[in-house]
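tool_call: predict_structure(chain=1)
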Amino acid sequence: MKKCKSCQMEIDPKAKKCPHCQADQRIWFARHPILTGLIILVVIGIVGAAGGSKNSSSSSQTTGQAQTQSVASPTPITAQKITAQQLADDFDSNQVAAESKWKDKLVEFSAKVANITDSGISFTNVASKEFSMTQISCRVDDKNQLMSLKNGQTITVRGVIGSQTIGVIDMSQCQVVQ
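tool_result:
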């Protein structure tokens, strides 16, 4: 037996509510699943932003190198066409190998928009595994490209793959190709 958190009466240890005072016996996170989810998303966003700022300098250096190379040679850099599922599955399978294969590569894929924010577009549920938490965060520089988009719409984007932090694959210099 355990004591109720509110009335201190003895109750069954598995009870979710006290039979005497009806006080909820679950932990705070179980009583507030929506707030818990929002807190987790905020923490992921903060960690992703902190990790993204580290990658932005290396990403801008890579961009500078790519621009220098394109000036030196007349052939433009073309994006490698892949599927969002292929990218997510590679990262789900082995993050180190996936970053070695995809980091700093210009890719193009189509996927269903999950969320549109000031910083860009998020794509979730892109992996083939049923319970994969892997998602793709596409940072769009031209905010005008975001104005006509809607959540749930399938679009084509082109951008440079970065690192994966807490399940989020960072993609910079994104452009909506449609």
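agent: The helical segments are 28-31, 33-72, 84-93, 95-102. Proceeding to next step.
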